[in-house]
Write a structure and sequence with these properties.
Layout: H1 7-33, H2 41-69, H3 72-100, E1 104-112, H4 118-135, E2 139-148
Parallel strand pairs: 1-2
Length: 172
């Protein structure tokens, strides 16, 4: 028996998957730059646990049956379901992080003219920190380092190898 696929349905399904991906991508970017308070966190945690358990059960079943009947496609579907389960776990970890109140901390080097006063450099650092905390609401703190433009970055903050206090040679 030969099965013919309905090309219209396949094209429609592929179009819907592409549109769904666009909507989810836009939503993720929007939420990244405009975070909102998560309501019903318990429901997110419950859904992620249920999603993981369900996907793992489906994965085990598909892989077992796929191996029994020699279907590489069914085994691959099982592995796909397992990855979907890991995605649910990542949602769980994120929800628990929100519940615990974890937020991000940023550290940034700002290069300024070496001719600026220390006071002006400090004002610039405060302004940068203020803008970061307002624009990225998920930040709980930001540390701003002000460097002269000709000596900016981590390489200029390293301390060369040295010895002191009976310690072996070391660098920072």
């Amino acid at each position: 028996m030969i099965h013919h696929r309905n090309t219209y349905q396949e094209n429609h399904r592929a179009h819907n998957h592409g549109r769904t991906a666009q909507v989810h991508t836009h939503g993720a970017i929007d939420r990244f730059f405009h975070p909102r308070i998560v309501k019903y966190l318990w429901a997110v945690i419950a859904a992620s646990v249920i999603g993981f358990i369900g996907n793992e059960a489906v994965a085990q079943f598909r892989i077992k049956v796929g191996n029994e009947i020699g279907s590489a496609s069914l085994v691959a579907d099982g592995h796909h379901a397992r990855v979907d389960g890991f995605t649910s776990l990542s949602v769980l970890f994120g929800a628990v992080g929100v519940w615990l109140g974890h937020r991000l901390h940023a550290e940034l080097n700002v290069a300024v003219s070496p001719e600026l006063s220390v006071e002006r450099g400090h004002e610039i650092a405060k302004e940068v920190r203020h803008n970061l905390l307002h624009k990225l609401r998920y930040l709980s703190n930001a540390t701003i380092h002000v460097d002269p433009i000709d000596a900016s970055g981590e390489d200029y903050h390293r301390i060369a190898e040295h010895e002191h206090d009976d310690l072996p040679a070391h660098s920072h």
